[in-house]
Specification:
- By secondary structure, the protein is mainly α.
- A hairpin with a 2-residue loop joins strand 2 (47-49) and strand 3 (52-55).
- It has a three-stranded antiparallel beta sheet.
- The protein has helices spanning 2-7, 13-19, 28-36, 57-67, 81-98; strands at 11-12, 47-49, 52-55.
- It has a domain at 2-67.
- It has five helices and three strands, in the order H-E-H-H-E-E-H-H.
Length: 100
C-alpha cells in the first residue's frame, strides 16, 4: 500500500483535503481521524513521513467511494419464540408429507 501511495505523490493530509471539493471545508483533524480510526471499517490510506501524515488525492477518492458504495445488508432480526415454533411445525409437516 505504501508503494502505491508513494507512486501517487503523497502530500500532507491537510493539503489533500483542501484539494478535493467534497472535503475542502473539513477540519484537517477529520482527515487525520479517517486515516487513524476510519469510518465504518474503512480507513483513509496514509503513510507517515518524517512525523507528518501524508496521503494522496487518489487515496481520498478511493476512501470516499468505499464509504458511498452502498449500505451493508442489515442483519436479520432474531426470530421470536412463536416464529420458531411455527417454522418448526411447518418443517415437521413437510417432513411427514415427504414420508421422512
Amino acid at each position: 500500500m505504501s508503494a502505491a501511495l508513494i507512486a501517487e505523490g503523497p502530500r500532507p493530509i491537510a493539503a489533500v483535503g483542501r484539494s478535493n471539493p467534497a472535503t475542502k471545508n473539513l477540519n484537517p483533524r477529520t482527515l487525520l481521524r479517517w486515516a487513524q480510526r476510519g469510518v465504518r471499517g474503512v480507513k483513509l490510506e496514509s503513510l507517515q513521513v518524517g512525523g507528518r501524515l501524508m496521503s494522496t488525492a487518489a487515496a481520498l477518492d478511493r476512501f470516499l467511494a468505499a464509504l458511498n458504495a452502498g449500505p451493508e445488508p442489515a442483519p436479520s432480526a432474531p426470530r421470536s419464540p412463536a416464529e420458531r415454533r411455527r417454522a418448526s411445525a411447518a418443517a415437521g409437516e413437510e417432513l411427514e408429507r415427504l414420508g421422512v
